[in-house]
Backbone:
């Protein structure tokens, strides 16, 4: 599946058929700091992603004062 | 995608988000409802403002400030926006676009102040001219302009989008240094006093994952990119630390902050009253200050006399990406 990531903006290919939580773990990302959007829809941690999905992993942590 | 197994706690429809701190999953509608309830609980519990108050929302184009403006309007409050153009390269240009579009699409009133146009400086130049961290010049400029705009415009309260993660991270920083003066002032609402307007943070009961979800589900086109100056700063490090703890024991982050407010802040209240000291009016702008001219007017003098500095020159190594 195609995974869009930020900071820096990039796209990576990950082999499909795994849950959102597995994907975050595989990329070493913390659930509390991200939202996962599959084909335009927000999805929870146990959603299963398929190889033809387009997934965005959006960081939600803001910096600054 | 194959539909997930998890169901909304309230209605059993397929969930869109899991919130470990509530030990539950929610569908879109009930996640929005949770956000509304948490905001109104904060407004009521901390006595932030009422339906007749005129609210000035400090907006940056990021998720939190647009979420709080949207939520207040949806809840029927009278809220205008204030945006300060900071002159931080592409980041500021894009922020301006997001804020302007948000206000225009909803027919909301937006006040805009541009540092370069009005005061002859921008944040990168101010940082270089004062030899201080950009965030310190930036925070001071924004606070001054929010206060001034609220007083000039006759607003009852200035609202900011600070969320639970922001406040918990600041609290951690203050606790690590036992900075009693800052701890005493770290409250979700500060009353109007000494010529400063009232200030409130209605989102302190919501995590940034929740405010981001609010924006996504409400179709709010916020600026996802962060200010390039923030990258790698201590505030972000504290958030990471808290989220690492949260991962092992969910809801620790909210207990850390909310129990501080309930249990610890009252004990510090005396400290806060003692610390306010003698204030008079800045001879230049009228803002409350301990000196002859206020810190903002002095910053304007120093920064506007300096040649413009592009943002790239004030980024730390980790800030460049
Ligand atoms: S990260 Fe610092 S410089 Fe950037 S907007 Fe926030 S306070 Fe200003
Ligand atoms: Zn539901
Ligand atoms: Zn002044």
Residues:
């Amino acid at each position: 599946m195609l995974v869009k990531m930020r900071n820096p903006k990039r796209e990576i290919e990950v082999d499909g058929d795994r849950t959102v939580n597995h994907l975050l773990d595989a990329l070493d990302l913390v659930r509390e700091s991200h939202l996962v959007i599959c084909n335009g829809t927000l999805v929870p941690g146990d959603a299963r992603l398929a190889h033809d999905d387009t997934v965005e992993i959006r960081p939600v942590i803001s910096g600054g004062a | 995608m194959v539909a997930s197994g998890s169901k909304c706690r309230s209605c059993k429809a397929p969930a869109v988000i899991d919130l470990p701190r509530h030990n539950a999953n929610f569908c879109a509608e009930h996640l929005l409802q949770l956000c509304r309830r948490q905001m109104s609980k904060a407004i009521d519990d901390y006595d932030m403002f009422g339906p007749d108050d005129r609210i000035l929302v400090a907006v940056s184009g990021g998720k939190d400030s647009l979420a709080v403006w949207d939520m207040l309007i949806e809840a029927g409050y009278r809220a205008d926006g204030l945006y300060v153009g900071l002159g931080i390269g592409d980041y500021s240009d894009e922020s301006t676009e997001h804020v302007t579009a948000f206000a225009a699409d909803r027919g909301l009133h937006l006040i805009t102040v541009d540092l370069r146009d009005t005061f002859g400086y921008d944040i990168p130049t101010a940082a270089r001219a004062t030899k201080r961290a950009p965030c310190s010049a930036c925070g001071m400029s924004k606070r001054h302009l929010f206060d001034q705009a609220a007083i000039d415009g006759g607003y009852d309260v200035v609202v900011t989008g600070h969320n639970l993660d922001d406040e918990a991270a600041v609290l951690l920083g203050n606790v690590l240094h036992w900075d009693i003066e800052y701890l005493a002032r770290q409250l979700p609402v500060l009353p109007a006093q000494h010529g400063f307007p009232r200030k409130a943070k209605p989102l302190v009961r919501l995590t940034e994952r929740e405010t981001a979800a609010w924006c996504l589900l409400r179709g709010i086109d916020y600026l996802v990119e962060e200010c390039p100056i923030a990258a790698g700063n201590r505030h972000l490090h504290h958030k990471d630390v808290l989220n690492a703890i949260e991962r092992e024991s969910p809801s620790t982050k909210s207990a850390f902050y909310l129990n501080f407010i309930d249990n610890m802040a009252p004990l510090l209240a005396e400290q806060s009253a003692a610390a306010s000291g003698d204030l008079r009016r800045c001879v230049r702008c009228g803002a409350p200050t301990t000196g002859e001219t206020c810190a903002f007017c002095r910053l304007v003098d120093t920064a506007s006399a300096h040649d413009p500095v592009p943002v790239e020159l004030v980024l730390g190594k980790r800030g460049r990406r």
